[in-house]
Each structure stands twice: as structure tokens, then as C-alpha cells.
Amino acid sequence: MNRKTIIDSLKNEKKWDIVVIGGGATGLGTALDAASRGYRTALIEQHDFAKGTSSRSTKLVHGGVRYLRQGNISLVLEALKERGLMLQNAPHIVKTQSFIIPNYHWWEKPFYGIGLTLYDKLAGRLSFGKSKTLSKAQTIEEIPTIEPTNLAGGVRYFDGQFDDSRLAVNLMQSIFDHDGIAVNYVKATGLMKSNSKISGVRVQDVETGEDFDVQAKAVVNATGVFTDNLRQMDDPGTKPIIQVSQGVHIVLDRHFQPGKSAIMIPKTDDGRVLFAVPWHNKVIVGTTDTPVKNAELEPKALKEELDFLLSHTAKYLTEDPEPEDVKSVFTGLRPLVKESGNSSTKKLSRDHTILVDRSGLVTVTGGKWTTYRKMAEDTVDHASEVAGLERLKAVTAGLKIHGWVAEPGQNGRYDIYGADGDAIRMIERENGKWGDLMHPQLPYRPAEVIWAVRHEQARSVEDILSRRTRAILLDAKASMQIAGTVADLIAGELNFDEQWKKTEISNYRALAEQYLFKS
Questions:
Q1: Residue 42 in contact with residue 181, Cβ under 8 Å?
Q2: On the CB side of 283, how many CA atoms lie within 13 Å of its CA?
Q3: In the chain, what are the domain boundaries?
Q4: Distance CA 155, CA 289 (A)
Q5: Residue 213 CA to its chain's centroid (Å)
Q6: Distance, CA of 45 to CA of 222 (rounded, Å)
Q7: 511 Cβ partners below 8 Å, 6+ apart?
Q8: In angstroms, rounded to a whole number, what is the distance separating the alpha carbons of residues 273 and 342?
Q9: Model pTM?
């Protein structure tokens, strides 16, 4: 993917049907939906694809067991359907995962057993597997490190697990597969209007500093936690609708939970849901739910959030993790839609919301990764109506995402790339060292860096180590040690100079420091 060619395409189109601002799950899904219908579609992202919330999830594709407990059946039904479609359309990224709810009170087994039987039935033909009650011995067999004191047994159910930023990259590639374009490091600096109606976006190429206008029949605001910023760019008097909530996760070595099943604690002492999920041979523990005032590209974990995660992990596992055991800490922000008089983010709406302002600006916000496709479909329906476009039917319910393979799991170390795995092996042959591990504690090779630069719009060391690979999450300290190697590989592909490399290495190491556990 040649950046200059993409930028030229963005500038030279006389008038796009739909321009999407925001390169997270919602924006990428919206642009793919629009492009696959046949609309001339462009997406811009001010930083990198999935830089924010969409690369910092708990890595779950789920119907939402807790929403079932809240009685939100419609949301559960929608999410269960979308969960099944994600598995069908991106089987190289989305996997079935078993979860166990450990029971420490006599009433929990029948209570959760009945609830999860309903969960299975709601999924219908898209079910991921049948739930089952387990004895104490069976629960320990599934999760050898579960705390056995007072353990009465467990309930097993099935949901999905995925790699969020890898799916985001595949969505970006899918947009190009359907004749749209998507470009990172292009920032919306203003909204163009004609007769008080949105007619396009003023943008800046962040890399070159060049400013130019992009004409559009419809503009979609899919900027997540920054939703209110863009709406106020359109109308300074617009009231904020977003309450930002922060979710923190810690990453531990696999020996803390060596079993194949994930742990789900449906209600901790303070009412939160807690997961411990196997992922890329590590264990992700999360998440918290803390209201914060400001949206930031790099949010930081609070001490009380880290204390909460460590103490509750110790409560449910036989080995108590210490701060030095934490390989990485990552923090994501949720764009929750405010409800009048409700200050608790645990109770705010996880449903998605679509607004059309007087100017015609279409805003989509809320929701979650699992329902990104349905959010996108609803958004394009609104945007096409606003723009007066021919009504074209959505096709994404059966659309195979870039990388789709009929039989996932056949590509060895490059399974996560799906159909692109063989192409990465071809890159290995260009250089005898490009197939070697870059670090003994990380599963990544130089060929993946080259592939990401050539075909996934990776522009920086951070792009590679945070989102094209997941090195910063798997082991932040180890990732810092290969920043120089990655910088050399990128510079060789893009003809960047020594000063660029020095700056990149310094910037990345400063970023990765923020992912280390600091008590």
C-alpha cells in the first residue's frame, strides 16, 4: 500500500459519497459496509487504525452474559447473532473460547446454570457450544490454578476470543478490497459546509503537514471517546453526550492459568465483572470500570485499579501475582452514552447510538466490538439517507473479511494472518534472517514487520509493536529491546534516515514505559 497513492486518491476524488472520520472498529466497519454496498467511500484516522479503544479491549467476542442478568435481552440477542457472524466471516481471527464461572456458594451452580442455558438457547443455530455444570474436581481439572478453598464446582459456557487490532487491520484491508480507501495519520481539522449543511472535511496529512479539502455527500463521525469534540466542531453549542469510562487490564505469564478455559467472575465485591482470558500464550486479567473526565490517546491506569486487579486475581488463583509478574498494563476508554441522572458508568448504555445533527453530520457512538458490523449497517443506512444516495442493501452479514480461510489453524506461526500467511513466508525468503525471532520472549519475526509496512500501512515502531504485532501487550519490557531492530526494518523499506530512527526508538521506549507495572 503506497501512502502517496492513497493520499492522492483521497484528494483527487471529486466528491465522495461517504467520508468516515475515525479508524477504530466502528469507523472501519462503517467504511467497509459503505464500500461493499458500492458507495464511493473514504476513511481518515488522525493516528493509527485502532490506536485507541479498539486495540485495548478484553479480547472477547461475546453476547454479554452480564446484560442477560440485567434483563437486556434485545442487546444479548443482537450480540449473540453478531458474535456468530464474526466467527463465520473472520475465522482466522475469531476463535471459540470456553469460560468457567467458579462457584463458591451452593446457589451459584443452579443460578448460573439456568441463566447460561437460556444464553445458549438465545444463540440458536449460531451457538458456540452448550453450557454445562461442573463438579469441583472437573473445575480444577479445567483450571488447575483455581482457588480450591470453598470451591463447590463451576459452570462452563462458550463465547468468543479474538485479536482486536489484527481484526481492525483486516477490516482496513477489506475496505480496499471493495474499492474504498482508508488512511491513517490524516486528521480532520474542520468541517466544510454549504447552505449550513455538511459538504466535506478539511484535513491535514500529519506526516507532511499538507492541508487539503475532501468533498463528501455525507460525513460520519465515528471518533469514539472523541465524539463530542467533532460534534462541537460542527456546532460549538452542542451538549456533550459521552461519559468516558476507563478499563484497565494486566497481562500475566501463562503459568498463572495454564488451563484452556478462561475464568469469568460475574460479580466481584464491588459489582464488577472480572475475566482472566488465555491469549497469545499469556493471560489477560480485566477489567475495571472507572469514570474519567478527559479522553486521551494514551490513558493511564490508576493505582487503585491496579490494586483491584492484583488483589482479585490473588483471590481466585492459587498463586498470587506480584507487581513484578505483570508483563504489561494496558488501558482503554469506553465511549458510554450518558443517561440523565445516572453517574455510574457500570450502568450506562452499551447500546450504540446514532445521531443526525441539523448540519447532516451523522454520529455513531457507544456499542462494543462484537456488534461493530450491525452498528456500521445502521450508520450507513442513516448516512445514505442524509446524502440522498441510492438505497443499496448491506451485504456484510455474509462478507468474508480479508484473510478469511476455509480451514483456520493450518498456517503455523502465521495463523493470525489467515490467507496472507503464505505471502509472509515468501518475504522470509528475501533475507535469511527475516524468519528468525526478534526476541526470545516474543513470537515475532522481521518478515512480519516488512509485511506490515508493505501491506498494512504501518508507519512507525509503535504501529508495529502495539497493533500489527501485540508485543507491547505481551511483554512491554521485551518489546523495548527490539525497537531498534524494528526501526531499522521500517527505515529500510520507507527510506527514512538515521534521525527518524533515533526519534522513533526514543518515542517508543517512552511509550512502552507507560505499560510497565508501577506500584
A1: yes
A2: 25
A3: 3-53+165-240+346-398, 72-162+243-335, 412-513
A4: 25
A5: 29
A6: 10
A7: 298, 462, 466, 472
A8: 19
A9: 0.95
CA 243 – CA 366 distance, rounded (Å): 10
Whether domain 3-53+165-240+346-398 has CATH 3.50.50.60: the reply is: yes
Q: How many angstroms separate the CA atoms of 515 and 475, rounded?
A: 9
pLDDT of residue 268: 79
SS3 242: strand
For residues 253 and 428, what is the distance between their CA atoms, to the nearest angstrom? 29
Q: What type of residue is 375? A: M
Residue 339 pLDDT level (bands cut at 50, 70, 90): low
Does the pLDDT at position 142 exceed 80?
yes
Report d(CA 53, CA 333) in Å as an integer. Answer: 5
- Kindly report the length of the chain: 519
Cell readout for 296 is: 486521551
CA atoms within 13 A on the CB side of 201: 30
How far apart CA 11 and CA 118 sit, in angstroms, is 52
CATH 3.30.70.100 is right for the domain spanning 412-513: no
| CATH T-level topology, domain 72-162+243-335 | D-Amino Acid Oxidase; Chain A, domain 2 (3.30.9)
Neighbours of 350 (CB within 10 A): 19
Please state, in angstroms and rounded to a whole number, the distance separating the CA atoms of residues 187 and 232: 16
Cα–Cα distances (Å) from 96 to 153, 164, 461, in that order, read 22, 15, 31
Q: What local confidence, expressed as pLDDT, does residue 421 receive?
A: 96
- Secondary structure element (H or E) that encloses residue 270, with its range: none
- Residue 371 neighbours by CB distance under 10 Å: 26
Percent of the chain with pLDDT over 90: 84
**Distance of alpha carbon 515 from alpha carbon 126, whole angstroms:** 37
Question: Could you tell me the pLDDT band of residue 269, with boundaries at 50, 70 and 90?
Answer: confident
The DSSP string of 107-170 is THHHHHHHHHHHHHHHHGGG-----EEE-HHHHHHHSTTB--TT--EEEEEEEEE--HHHHHHH
Q: Rg (Cα) of the chain, in Å, rounded?
A: 23
CB atoms within 10 A of CB 131: 22
